[in-house]
């Protein structure tokens, strides 16, 4: 589980709000697809996204990790603080593609939990 180990290590930096250290695990031209929402192309766009949406470091749990070749699929729950101070809760399924041990692509399915 080499790529899965790399991903979980990188995500520890996200949990601590150290986004630059996380980004060091990404390729320069990393591409993130948030299904039905947006596409981020390049490390600078991912950085801007994190600055815009991570008012506090996200809180997430991993339910399952599956690694197959250059791909790692992770499911779980994530909580994000919104600009108005409320917390939003989501279920997610992320499919990560790696190139030479770095994150090259993310396809994220994120569904808000309704109370």
UniProtKB/TrEMBL annotation:
InterPro entries: NTF2-like_dom_sf (IPR032710), SnoaL-like (IPR037401). Residues 12-105 form the SnoaL-like domain. Gene3D superfamilies: 3.10.450.50. Pfam families: SnoaL_2 (PF12680). It comes from the Bacteria. This is Nuclear transport factor 2 family protein. It comes from Dyadobacter subterraneus. The lineage of its organism: Bacteria, Pseudomonadati, Bacteroidota, Cytophagia, Cytophagales.
